[in-house]
Amino acid sequence: MLVFERKTFSTMSATDIYAVLQLRQDIFVVEQKCPFREIDDIDQVSHHVLGWEQGVDGRKFLAAYCRIIPVYVFHNFPDPAVGRLCTAASVRQKGYGRLIFNEGVKYLEELYPGSTIRIQAQQYLERFYQSCGFKTISEPYDEDGIQHIDMLRPAGTTA
Ligand SMILES: CC(C)(COP(=O)(O)OP(=O)(O)OC[C@H]1O[C@@H](n2cnc3c(N)ncnc32)[C@H](O)[C@@H]1OP(=O)(O)O)[C@@H](O)C(=O)NCCC(=O)NCCS
């Protein structure tokens, strides 16, 4: 069962930060074969949602993650965004991706009530994000060798 924690950069422990950066590197750099500067100086101003799971060895591990980015930080977006959505490869297709994304959206709505939400989505997940109430607002474009689209969820939308 996923246990969520909400953190800022300053309330994350060294262990939290190590787990977050390790999971993101495993997925966005290694798995997706994308050599880009994943540690991007946005974490310090973001809010973070950590989804912990109990491993078979009894130790907890970071199974799911996303971050909430304030306005005008990411690509100069005029709306807050949810980003770096990921789940560990060992727990995929169990609903954890949807759970952590919903938790991220809920957290964002509490931080920025009544706000439109913007995401830079990997294009292969367009249908997933549409099912969460997001609409595509850009043509597909390449970023770091991966096709992306910008998507928006107007304030007041319920998925
Ligand atoms: C995307 C990701 C978070 C989904 O995690 P998950 O734990 O498998 O998610 P869920 O089991 O909750 O599935 C949620 C939805 O994701 C979509 N999805 C998951 N894997 C997919 C795939 N390979 N291709 C297309 N859609 C996919 C489906 O729409 C699914 O909804 P459904 O179960 O109603 O069909 C995970 O595959 C991941 O970390 N991928 C690599 C990182 C990444 O691409 N992040 C997104 C950046 S925008």
Bound compounds, please?
coenzyme A
Overall residue-averaged pLDDT value? 96
Succession of helices and strands: EHEEEHEHEEE
Tally of alpha and pi helices: 3
Describe the structure.
There is one protein chain. This protein is of the alpha+beta class and 159 residues long. The protein contains three helices and eight strands, in the order βαβββαβαβββ. It has helices spanning 14-31, 96-111, 126-131; strands at 3-8, 47-54, 60-69, 81-87, 117-122, 135-136, 141-143, 146-153. The protein has a four-stranded antiparallel sheet with strand order 1-2-3-4, sandwiched between helices. Strands 5, 6, 7 and 8 form a four-stranded antiparallel sheet that branches. The longest helix has 18 residues, at 14-31. It is globular and about 45 Å long. The two termini are 23 Å apart. The mean pLDDT is 96. Bound molecules: coenzyme A (COA). Residues 27, 85-87, 92-98, 121-122, 124-125, 127-128 line the site of coenzyme A.
Spell out the blueprint of helices and strands:
Layout: E1 3-8, H1 14-31, E2 47-54, E3 60-69, E4 81-87, H2 96-111, E5 117-122, H3 126-131, E6 135-136, E7 141-143, E8 146-153
Antiparallel strand pairs: 1-2, 2-3, 3-4, 5-8, 6-8, 7-8
Coenzyme A is lined by residues 27, 85-87, 92-98, 121-122, 124-125, 127-128.
Can you summarize this structure?
This protein is an alpha+beta fold.
